[in-house]
């Protein structure tokens, strides 16, 4: 037995990470000689967490890896697509559709959902942060709040959603970038005082590591920021404020004080804020002079997007559970306002949007008979797709 409480790749592929009722269902299929019927199953979202108006689809690569070699076809939006829960006609938006014998993927419904629910929530939260951060640097700092086995997934999703960098070594390797960070409070504590720690940081680490001093270990943030400037001189890239809201209450006010003291002394440096940062706090911190943000738990522990899988056709006949819409569908999106409309898959008419644009079909065939039909894009390409779309979506939370 593993000494860490994690499932292996083989555990996932063999169905050990599924809900037991799917295993029981497969047993019933075997005994009764059913389950080989061809079905079309759509993955949709009924509502977003916290009344979000849009989400970022993430996790398709693992979804497809699990289905490789199975006799199924998969249609999907590109990973990184911004989508809404439903169209203007009230029909839920299909993000993915799987077609084939239900036996082929019944046992995997649970992990298939997990592969997209969790990362889509993280990517969406990251995108919301990136939207308000604008040109300011955002680094994903949240892996310490989550199970370490999830670090690569968390940082990949955070990066795809809009974070400029990640702190974990494994996450950076997954993405193909260099990890970014500052320094821990423990460095100052071991050296006994901030200035000695800042000097050691500057003397030991190579030049390509940005000199960012954490300035709230023992003394007032203004005092430690001045110490950092004295210790590192022109090498100082930035000072990081990690002051908990519970201690002083107003990180924006602290940031203003620090910048005033440094500017009065002729020190030009960046200000990085961390500690309880999210899309709601960033605008005020930017006004106070913050240049960059280390965003942790609000991204890594973002609420999941609750996709559901529903069979909408069986043997090419329309079926649907209560509250769902039968039949295979194409999701059309306006390229300007991101309004959606769902049409029957065999409907050849392309809808137009009220804003005057022709809507674009979002689902394409990405797997046939268990074989990948696309060259899967790198995280950089997917992230760029998200960032391009963020220019089109609304900010709907600043008046909360």
Description of the molecule:
The chain is an alpha/beta fold and 400 residues long. The protein is built from 15 helices and 18 strands. The chain folds into two domains: 18-26 and 33-120 and 303-390, nicotinate phosphoribosyltransferase, CATH 3.20.140.10; 134-300, Aldolase class I (TIM Barrel, Alpha-Beta Barrel), CATH 3.20.20. A seven-stranded antiparallel β-sheet has the order 13-12-1-5-3-17-18. β17 and β18 form a beta hairpin. The longest helix is centred in the first third of the chain and has 25 residues, at 109-133. The radius of gyration is 24 Å and the shape is elongated.
Could you list some keywords that capture this structure?
400 residues, alpha/beta, nicotinate phosphoribosyltransferase, TIM Barrel, 2 domains, six-stranded parallel sheet, 15 helices
Mean pLDDT: 94
* CATH topology type of the largest domain: nicotinate phosphoribosyltransferase
Task: Summarize the amount of helix as a percent range.
Answer: 25-40%
Which range does the strand content fall in?
15-25%
What summary fits the major beta sheet? 7 strands, antiparallel
Structural Rg: 24 Å
Give the class from helix and strand content and strand pairing: alpha/beta
Number of helices: 15
Strand order of the largest sheet: 13-12-1-5-3-17-18
Give the tally of structural domains.
2
